[in-house]
Write a structure and sequence with these properties.
- The N terminus is likely disordered.
- By secondary structure, the protein is α/β, with parallel strands linked by helices.
- The protein has two domains: 186 residues, D-Maltodextrin-Binding Protein, domain 2; 189 residues, D-Maltodextrin-Binding Protein, domain 2 (3-Layer(aba) Sandwich).
- The chain has 17 helices and 14 strands.
């Protein structure tokens, strides 16, 4: 009799477990729309993640809703239309920091992911400073997939040897070698469209201001009209004299190509350029291309982090949660980042899976002073970034440092920087 009851109990438990498994499996099925700006040469890293997700969840059809455009300029405009129109994607790429918190979190458009961090043990594997960028007092709002460095100067070692120049450690050294390069028909520094100019500007600002005053720009304690910031614009203007005149028509990849093809000596870009050169162009880091901190920024790491969150009201919530779990996993991070040209956001990643450039970036991440990127949404909200792009366009046309500083001050006040 006891045996019969035990068998019935086992059968009942088995049925419950089967029901639970079926319900869980049913939850992760249907579609998953992933919204990002990773296309073209940045596409293989995202495609590797999608392939991993589809292998883990074969009942889900992934919709890769990529909108092309460097630094997400075009994607952010499309996203804003969809979010405000009540049609959010299931999950979307966003830079950690003010780009997310100052835009979508304050508008109550994102779900808190604190419980997911606790379930997955991520509090212990993501650095505390990064967790701060992902959080507000009310919660943790996205899952980081990588760490990028923005203040990197790229070059081709063989070309520099041929032209008889060394890598400049300061802007004064750059100005000393620039005429020598121009005399040989070489553009000293390649630049692309507007956002790449802002990317260069933040590196120049760090070199002039240092990390303390650079940070004060974003907490409102250093005026944009101060002599130091005017000096940034003046130096930036001098540097632009040694760049390519067709910059506004070029993507960041095309600006990088100018260095690879021997048309330009240097390019300052994030380490996705390393991913482009090593993954797409098949150049060997260290021999095929070289790198150094942007002039005047040695010992400081300007960081940004791509992350994904969960929008309120998305159509396939459980599928999106499964995507976020995978992104934050050790397997997900170490699959994506070697292809993307970035380092893992986790502190326990296997660096033997990363090339020599990424190993050097990981070492710098752990030992350098860390500051946030302007061009990539860490230190300033979306309103400031949009209006600063207009300030940059005006400066590129006029080269008026004081006017740019005054305009940036007005933009900062309107965007609530430091207030």
């Amino acid at each position: 009799m006891r045996t019969s009851r035990w068998l019935k109990l086992v059968g009942l438990c088995g049925a419950i477990l089967l029901l639970f498994a079926t319900a869980t499996g049913a939850a992760v099925q249907g579609e998953l729309e992933i919204f990002s700006w990773w296309a073209g040469d940045e596409g293989p890293a995202l495609e590797a993640l999608i392939a991993m997700y589809e292998e883990k969840h074969p009942e889900v059809t992934v919709i890769n809703a990529t909108v092309t455009g460097g630094a997400g300029v075009n994607a952010k405009a499309v996203l804003k239309t969809r979010m405000l129109g009540g049609d959010p994607p299931d999950t979307f790429q966003v830079h950690a920091g003010q780009e997310r918190s100052g835009t979508w979190v304050v508008a109550n458009r994102m779900e808190d992911r604190t419980w997911l961090y606790e379930e997955e043990g991520w509090m212990e594997v993501f650095p505390a400073d990064l967790l701060d960028l992902l959080s507000t007092d009310e919660g943790i709002w996205s899952v980081p997939v990588n760490i990028h460095r923005s203040n990197v100067m790229y070059y081709i070692p063989d070309n520099l040897a041929q032209w008889g120049v060394d890598v400049p450690k300061t802007w004064d050294e750059f100005f000393a070698i620039a005429p020598k390069l121009e005399a040989q028909g070489i553009i000293p520094l390649s630049v692309g469209e507007n956002w790449t100019a802002t990317h260069l500007w933040e590196c120049v600002a760090l070199s002039v201001l240092g990390p303390e005053k650079y940070g004060q720009l974003w907490d409102g304690t250093l005026s944009w009209k101060s002599p130091e910031v005017i000096e940034v614009w003046e130096l930036f203007g001098r540097i632009l004299e040694y760049t390519n005149p067709d910059a506004p028509s070029l993507s960041w990849q095309q600006a990088t190509d100018m260095v690879v093809n021997g048309q330009a000596a240097f390019n300052i870009m994030g380490d996705w350029a390393s991913g482009y050169m090593s993954t797409t162009l098949k150049l060997e880091p260290g021999t095929g291309y070289g790198w150094a901190p942007a002039p005047g920024t040695e010992g400081v790491f300007i960081m940004l982090s791509d992350s994904f969150g969960l929008p309120v009201g998305c159509r396939h919530r459980e599928n999106a949660i499964a995507w976020l779990r995978m992104l934050g996993s050790l397997e997900g991070q170490d699959t994506f980042n070697p292809l993307k040209g970035s380092i893992s956001a986790r502190i326990d990643s296997d660096l033997t899976k990363y090339n020599v450039y990424l190993q050097s970036a990981a070492n710098d991440w752990r030992t350098n002073r860390i500051v946030g990127s302007l061009a990539h949404g860490v230190v300033a909200n979306e309103r400031f970034m949009n209006d600063f792009a207009t300030v940059m366009d005006i400066f590129l046309a006029t080269k008026n440092a004081e006017a740019a500083a005054n305009a940036a001050e007005a933009v900062a006040i309107q965007a609530g920087i430091g207030r």
